[in-house]
Amino acid sequence: MEEAKVLFKILGLEVTGHITTMWAIMFFLFVVLVLATRKLDKVPGRFQCLVEYTFEALLNFFAGILGRERARRYFPILATLFLFILISNWSGVLPMAGHVEGFRPPTSTLSVTAGLGIVAFIVTQIAGFREKGVGYLKHFIQPFPVMLPLNLIEELVRPLSLSLRLYGNIFGEEMVVAVLLSLAPYFAPIPMQLLGLLFGFIQALVFTTLTAIYISQATAEAH
Description:
The protein is mainly α and 223 residues long.
């Protein structure tokens, strides 16, 4: 794994190319959402239609997992995770991505994907306690109290699995494109980059789908 190069420091904290790209993506999403919600028209234009269609499609998708009410409740975090991961993945197929020190796909480093996995884990636990209170802890000893160690391990492995799956796929794709670029810099990487758009979408969808499933399991009523 290539060591991330430090570009500069802020208050002693090291800033790498992955972090600068992540900041740029966050700023981009902020600007898009501000522009989309600044002036909502009853007869929306193309841009408003695109944003509304995207969010409506995501809401319907998550409703199929969580139900309409819970999907609306946890939609902000799920949609944010999906859009951030999607754009992070797609940033890796842009020209010169990975070859300019200040421009590195955030999801191609384990520290970022681990952070996303931890966020998914924390949101799941908060959702469980929010819906069930202290009674949420009962699921750790179901169906039998002797299952407590295994249930705890399963719960703790989930963020690790999410982060490694996302990191491995995006980092591997970036390495393949880099090799093809060194062999045939003008033509060979193009098919892989096109596939990267598809794989980037799939990985973002898989990550948020699993997060939604974990939330559904944590908030489901016991039978």
